[in-house]
TrEMBL record, chain A:
Transmembrane segments: none annotated. CDD domains: ABC_NikE_OppD_transporters. This is ABC transporter ATP-binding protein. One of its GO terms (cellular component) is plasma membrane. Pfam families: ABC_tran (PF00005), oligo_HPY (PF08352). It comes from the Bacteria. It comes from Allobacillus salarius.
From TrEMBL, chain B:
Belongs to the ABC transporter superfamily. Residues 7-257 form the ABC transporter domain. GO terms for biological process: peptide transport; transmembrane transport. Residues 331-352 are annotated as: Disordered. Keywords: ATP-binding, Nucleotide-binding, Transport. It comes from the Bacteria. InterPro entries: AAA+_ATPase, ABC_transp_ATP-bind, ABC_transporter-like_ATP-bd, ABC_transporter-like_CS, Oligopep_ABC_C, P-loop_NTPase. It holds the Pfam family oligo_HPY. This is Dipeptide ABC transporter ATP-binding protein. Coiled coil: none annotated. GO terms for molecular function: ATP binding; ATP hydrolysis activity.
TrEMBL record, chain C:
The chain crosses the membrane at residues 12-30, 101-122, 134-155, 167-189, 227-253, 273-299. Its main location: membrane. PROSITE patterns: ABC_TM1. This is ABC transporter permease. It is a multi-pass membrane protein. It comes from Allobacillus saliphilus. It comes from the Bacteria. One of its GO terms (cellular component) is plasma membrane. Residues 95-292 form the ABC transmembrane type-1 domain. Keywords: Cell membrane, Membrane, Transmembrane, Transmembrane helix, Transport. The lineage of its organism: Bacteria, Bacillati, Bacillota, Bacilli, Bacillales. Belongs to the binding-protein-dependent transport system permease family. It is found in: Cell membrane. One of its GO terms (biological process) is transmembrane transport.
Length: 343, 352, 306
């Protein structure tokens, strides 16, 4: 909420990829806040730009991608004004990141210990002995059995779940203020996913850090996040606290996502898919990006891009329906939340 | 729904040899599927669920003889497929199709959609040559594509569209059974819902039978009539969808269901955290294969392999493979292990 | 690891069997009678027959082969037809010259190849990258005898910097090593580049950057070690090409190495020497590849050594 102090404020972030086919605006004016100590979920389907947003925060975008503009304020300081050297001091130290594929995200030719110690060496100048001591503490913290032994093991000797724990240990080594988790459990089995998500949550409480959770899984969002930004085609279309988003979703895309989701916790007669597909970058609509798939779209939607507006209670929506200019059916504003079996 | 048994799998085993030592002999086997039996009735959808390494995909491949099973029988329409020679099997494949997870990898990149579908029909010779053109247009329309898509190559389509082509190819030979191996797992939810609805529609219209292999329990709950839960090459529980999801009996099924994140912030999370990782299928644990991670395991579970069985209070056809189903249900057998801590892991067995 | 090495050594047996058999048959199936050769054009039939008996040329082929292998195992390659000296003594000094040439050239090609490949990969599609890759293409395409002659023309005859022929002094080493090493350097540069490009796009490189690792350390510590794995294989294969290349290089620079010995012996139909040379070169090639495979597994921890 707006009363909360934000640790990260992203404003109008733009990241493009310059390919032979022209400019692809992967992140196209993204704005959101991460309240201190809370978890913000960024949810979206493939091509929504959620991962590129995460990579842009740490400026890990490499050729042919480029951050074109906007502001990324971390503790009041715009990261885009920093030099590469200053940025390196932030990466892995104040802001850390974990990735989707634990199988490939660790260097196969170095031991677990070498990889964790490296963080201590870079950011705290610790030698091998002190680094190993700290690394063992971290491995214990993330629940890895016999950590002394693990230190000398190579990533291939560990299971997927263990590797993701090592990744978390490495990311949290320097006790960052912000952890960016990019689909941290997508590649894992569901019972392992449950362990890892719980672990992240517990560590967040213990270390008092904030988390940005990038995911395509609305279940993961509901379980782990306090606030949610829904992205579609490089833009945030809805930003709300998690309860509001699931109980009273307003953007037609968010509603569509929830209605297409097969649920494991209750029976559903039928799924209502969103029609059509995500537009390709070279045929991006000029108006609302979602208009071609939106059941309520009017001429206004097809012609003019709506802005991300406050609609009260800290909620933001990018949709013409919730503006005074709306000229379609006034009834579509009311979304009847489905009754759930629980509470 | 008719009760004709279309597919009857009995004592199916699929071992993959491991070569090793100085002379590269077979030193051991990966017991990917180890003695499983089940039936699938005509017109129903049976899902096989479980985590990686449980043998669900291997089961699907073994049934279609994409890998030749080590032992057991697979009766399809009364014929044991494992007795057939190559030629007879090829004929049989007309009735049994498979849709894979990655539609891109399973489509020939140098063939247009038309060529792909024509080839499928030519191999099985189901549609007279002169009618194939019309049939292709009809098929594409059925799966929600346009007839002009027929002359495009796989790379010109999106993931969802490619999966539709995979479905069209499977349908082109008018099969009875379709094995869907993680068929919608790679798709975004909005597209996944489209494909799921399509699969349901065809089932109704063409009386298709699906063997639906998936790790996504939301999808499984939506599409299945019956569900088979596998763990390390064994079936641990089987039953109608309602029983499995609302009255699970095996501790593994319970843990699996409790682990799924539910898209509802108010959902009450009574989560069972399993200890450690799935053991290796090379030397699977003795007795009940789940005993190394099971919250309720006792000495008996280490020694005695539980068979699939039913109990009086369970629905018809609902079976679990656990010694303590009834006692857990009545509360007489309490957990023997911690299930709420994610950081007090037992020493996991060494990975091989 | 020990199991792996033992297994690889066992696998050498059929390879060596094949090599000896091939060399043996090659010599025995080529037209021309060795006895006649030794005895000379004008020798009488009885002399020739006597020689045939003493050399065991009338024994059945399998017996001859077994004798051949037994002798070879004891480093007894017979006597040179030309000089009537033990072949082994004939080969020994020349063998070391060729090994020196091959090893120096390999070191040169690895050194230049790696640097060029890394520099290219780090700035893909830059002017630097394109220039290096064009030079590499030339390096691969130039026949080495031609390159040798050109180098000799410029640096020995025109500029007089290096002696044009011979082997031994530091100056004499330079041109032949460049001649022989260029193609290898080009191949290794191209391999290093593509391997580095592949590795740089891997997830763990992104992880390293996200940790705040300096870009240079990302390249030289995190990326290079992984990128070297396929390069090592190429170096091994390249060594074989290199051995073949010594024949031409030694001829161009008049170096008395193994390669030249082969040529001279073939010209003189000195079969035992040819046989021994081919055999030795084959064995070196096999052994080098064994070493490469073992170092490959040491570099790449993921390879299951059992």
């Amino acid at each position: 909420m707006s009363t909360n102090e934000s640790i990260l404020e992203v404003t109008d972030l733009r990241t493009s990829f310059f390919t032979e086919g022209g400019e692809v605006k992967a992140v196209d004016g993204v704005t959101f806040d991460v309240p201190a100590g809370k978890t913000l979920g960024i949810v979206g389907e493939s091509g929504s730009g959620k991962s590129i947003t995460a990579m842009s925060i740490l400026q890990l975008i490499s050729h042919p991608g480029k951050i074109k503009g906007g502001e990324i304020k971390f503790r009041g300081k715009n990261l885009l004004d920093l030099s590469e050297k200053e940025m390196r001091k932030i990466r892995g130290n104040q802001i850390s990141m974990i990735f989707q594929e634990p199988m490939t995200s660790l260097n196969p030719t170095y031991t677990v210990g070498q990889q964790i110690r490296e963080s201590y060496k870079i950011h705290q100048g610790l030698g091998k002995k002190e680094g190993s001591k700290r690394a063992i503490e971290m491995l214990k913290l993330v629940g890895i059995p016999s950590p002394e032994k693990r230190l000398d093991q190579y990533p291939f000797e560990l299971s997927g779940g263990m590797r993701q724990r090592v990744m978390i240990a490495m990311a949290l080594a320097c006790k960052p203020d912000l952890l960016i988790a990019d689909e941290p459990t997508t590649a894992l089995d569901v019972t392992i996913q449950a362990q890892i998500l719980e672990l992240i949550k517990e560590l967040q409480d213990e270390l008092g850090m904030s988390v940005v959770m990038i995911t395509h899984d609305l279940g993961v969002v509901a379980e782990t996040c306090d606030y949610v930004a829904v992205m579609y085609c490089g833009k945030v279309v809805e930003y709300a606290d998690v309860r509001t988003l699931f109980k009273n979703p307003r953007h037609p895309y968010t509603v569509g996502l929830l209605k297409s989701l097969p649920r494991s916790d209750r029976d559903q007669e039928e799924l209502t898919p969103i029609k059509g597909t995500v537009p390709s970058p070279d045929e991006m609509p000029v108006g609302c990006r979602f208009a071609p798939r939106c059941p309520f779209a009017t001429n206004l939607c097809h012609e003019k891009l709506p802005s991300l507006d406050d609609v009260g209670d800290g909620e933001q929506i990018r949709c013409w329906i919730y503006t005074d200019e709306w000229n379609g059916d006034p009834g579509v504003k009311v979304y009847e939340p489905e009754r759930t079996t629980e509470g | 729904m008719s009760q004709k048994e279309l597919l009857k799998v009995k004592n199916l085993k699929q071992y993959f040899p491991i070569k090793g030592g100085i002379f590269g002999r077979t030193v051991n086997n990966v017991k990917a599927v180890d003695d499983i039996s089940f039936t699938v009735n005509e017109g129903e959808t049976v899902s096989v669920v479980g985590e990686s390494g449980c043998g669900k995909s291997t089961t699907g491949r073994a049934i279609l003889r994409l890998d030749n099973p080590t032992d057991g029988t697979v009766e399809f329409d009364g014929v044991n497929l494992l007795d057939l020679n190559k030629k007879e099997m090829r004929k049989m494949r007309k009735d049994m199709q498979i849709i894979f997870q990655d539609p891109y990898a399973s489509l020939n990149p140098r063939q247009t959609v038309r060529e792909t579908l024509r080839e499928a029909m030519a191999i099985q010779n189901v549609v007279p040559k002169e009618e194939r053109g019309d049939r292709i247009a009809e098929l594409l329309e059925t799966v929600g594509l346009q007839p002009y898509h027929a002359d495009r190559y796989p790379h010109e389509f999106s993931g969802g569209q490619r999966q539709r082509i995979g479905i069209a190819r499977a349908l082109s030979v008018d099969p009875k059974l379709i094995v869907c191996d993680e068929a919608v797992s790679a798709l975004d939810v909005s597209i996944q819902a489209q494909v799921l609805n399509l699969l349901k529609k065809f089932q109704k219209e063409m009386n298709l039978t699906y063997l639906f292999i998936s790790h996504d329990l939301g999808v499984v709950r939506h599409i299945s009539d019956r569900v088979i839960v596998m763990y390390l090459g064994k079936i641990v529980e089987v039953g109608d969808k309602k029983s499995i999801f609302e009255n699970p009996q095996h501790p593994y099924t319970k843990a699996l269901l409790s682990a799924i994140p539910v898209p509802d912030p108010d959902h009450n999370k009574d989560r069972i955290f399993l200890q450690g990782d799935v053991p290796s299928p090379i030397d699977p644990p003795t007795g009940c294969r789940f005993h190394t991670r099971c919250p309720f395991a006792t000495e008996r579970c280490k020694e005695e392999t539980p068979e699939l069985r039913s109990a009086g209070y369970m629905a018809e056809g609902h079976q679990g493979a656990c010694h303590y189903m009834e006692l857990i249900e009545s509360g007489e057998h309490q957990p023997t292990r911690e299930t709420s801590n994610v950081r007090m892991l037992d020493e996991e067995p060494e990975k091989v | 690891m020990t199991t792996y090495i033992i297994r690889r050594l066992f696998q050498l047996i059929p390879v060596l069997f094949g090599v000896t058999l091939l060399v043996f048959l090659l010599m025995h199936l080529t037209p021309g009678n060795p006895a006649q050769l030794i005895a000379g054009e004008t020798a009488s039939q009885s002399t020739i027959e006597r020689i045939e008996v003493s050399m065991g040329l009338n024994d059945p082929l399998p017996v001859q082969y077994v004798n051949f292998v037994t002798d070879v195992a004891q480093l007894d390659f017979g006597y040179s037809y030309r000089n009537n000296t033990p072949v082994f003594e004939e080969i020994k000094p020349r063998f070391w010259i060729t090994m020196e040439l091959a090893i120096y050239s390999t070191i040169l090609s690895i050194f230049i190849g790696l640097i060029a490949g890394i520099v290219s990969a780090v700035r893909q599609y830059s002017v630097r990258d394109v220039t290096i890759m064009i030079i590499a293409l030339f390096g691969m395409s130039m026949p080495n005898f031609w390159l040798g002659l050109m180098l000799m023309n410029w640096f020995s005859i025109q500029l007089g910097w290096f002696p044009p022929t011979g082997w031994g002094s530091a100056g004499q080493v330079v041109l032949p090593v460049i001649t022989l090493g260029t193609a290898g350097a080009a191949v290794i540069a191209r391999m290093t580049r593509s391997s580095m490009l592949d590795v740089i796009s891997q997830d763990y490189i992104r992880t390293a950057r996200a940790k705040g690792v300096h870009e240079q350390i990302v390249i030289y510590r995190h990326a290079l070690k992984n990128a070297l794995i396929p390069v090592v294989t190429v170096v091994g294969l390249q060594f074989g090409t290199l051995l073949a290349g010594t024949v031409l290089t030694e001829t161009v620079f008049s170096i008395n190495g193994l390669g030249r010995l082969v040529i001279d012996s073939i010209m003189a139909r000195d079969f035992p020497v040819v046989q021994a040379c081919i055999l030795i070169i084959s064995v070196i090639f096999v052994v080098v590849n064994l070493i490469v495979d073992i170092s490959y597994t040491l570099l790449n921890k993921r390879i299951d050594m059992d």
